[in-house]
Amino acid sequence: MKIIRVKDEIEGGQEALALFKDQVKQGAHVFGLATGSTPNTTYQALCQSDLDFSEAISINLDEYVGLSHNDPQSYYSYMVEHLFKQKPFKHSYLPDGTNEDADEECQRYSRIIAQNPVDFQLLGIGRNGHIGFNEPGSPFDGTTRKIKLTESTLNANARFFANEADVPRYAYSMGIGEIMQAKTILLEAYGMNKADAIQKTIEGPVTPNVPASILQKHPNVYFILDEEAASKLSK
Ligand code: PGA
After folding, report:
1. 224: β partners
2. Cα–Cα dist 201/197, whole Å
3. Which residue is catalytic, options 9, 15, 60, 62?
4. Pfam families of this UniProt entry (predicted)?
5. H/E stretch holding 109
6. What secondary structure does DSSP assign to 112-123, as a single string?
7. Is position 62 annotated as part of the catalytic site?
8. Is 141 labeled as catalytic in the residue annotation?
9. DSSP class of 178
10. Which of 26, 25, 27, 44 is nearest to 188 (CA)?
11. How many angstroms is it from 36 CA to the middle of ligand 1?
12. How many CA atoms lie within 13 A of 177 on its CB side?
């Protein structure tokens, strides 16, 4: 585990860009991508860089159930806006939130992940320690499934919607078992509201109550943390 401490998310984005460049140099071809406010500065840095993803593949962690790709609140729209418009990939995969057959959609997405092993996975972390939408209690060996979002996640995500009632209650999310298959993982966290989750993730016991704590078992994981997110670490 390698912890990179930064002043703020702007510097974090530059550190993440350096890791992306290093990965590309090493031949990384499949990138696992995340949404939310955390990766914004990373995507800005990627967009301003000379990196070319036109022969690469991206696979996103999750998508809200019920939102179509065209919905401005969908994670698909987020990715177009923040990255794909400027840095298109050869193929970009996200779960299809409009597929009402959850079993079919989850199996389809798990097949895509199995056929395109992720070289470099980008992650944020929820205040409750979730990765992707794998909420506390999610199995460490889980594959893609339909997940009921917790109150904490609904509250956190309400800021992106006009009313909290508009926040979708379910998401399709890559499972922790699939996330852990990535060859290298980068988790970024910024701000005080992530400090508890980061302390438990890095220094606490490995437990499904803190989904990200499983990263302690991954052989190749980087954390980029600002001072606030790192403020509860003992060292
Ligand atoms: P955030 O979400 O980047 O919007 O804080 C991260 C997450 O919930 O995984």
Report:
1. 4, 188
2. 6
3. 62
4. Glucosamine_iso (PF01182)
5. helix 102-115
6. HHHHS--SEEEE
7. yes
8. no
9. H
10. 44
11. 5
12. 10
Measured over the CA atoms of residue 15, residue 186, residue 86 and residue 72, the dihedral's sign is: negative
Long-range contacts for 66-71 (Cβ within 8 Å, ≥24 apart)?
66/97, 66/98, 66/168, 66/170, 67/97, 67/98, 67/168, 68/97, 68/98, 69/94, 69/96, 69/97, 69/98, 71/97
Decide whether any atom of ligand 1 lies within 6 Å of the 126 Cβ. yes
Atom of ligand 1 nearest to the CA of 38: 3
For the stretch 25-40, pLDDT in tens is 999 999 999 999 999 9
Tell me the domain boundaries of the chain.
2-226
With contact defined as beta carbons under 8 Å apart, do 197 and 127 qualify?
yes
Q: What are the residue ranges in the chain where pLDDT is below 50?
A: none
Please choose, from the candidates 83, 37, 34, the residue with its C-alpha nearest in 3D space to the C-alpha of residue 191.
37
Stated pTM of the model: 0.97
CB 118 within 8 A of CB 182: yes
135-155: pLDDT as tens digits: 999 999 999 999 999 998 898
In the structure encoding, which two tokens stand for residue 209, read together? 């109550």
Residue 87 region, left (φ>0) first, then alpha (ψ -120 to 50), else beta?
Answer: beta
CATH class (in words) of the domain with range 2-226: alpha beta
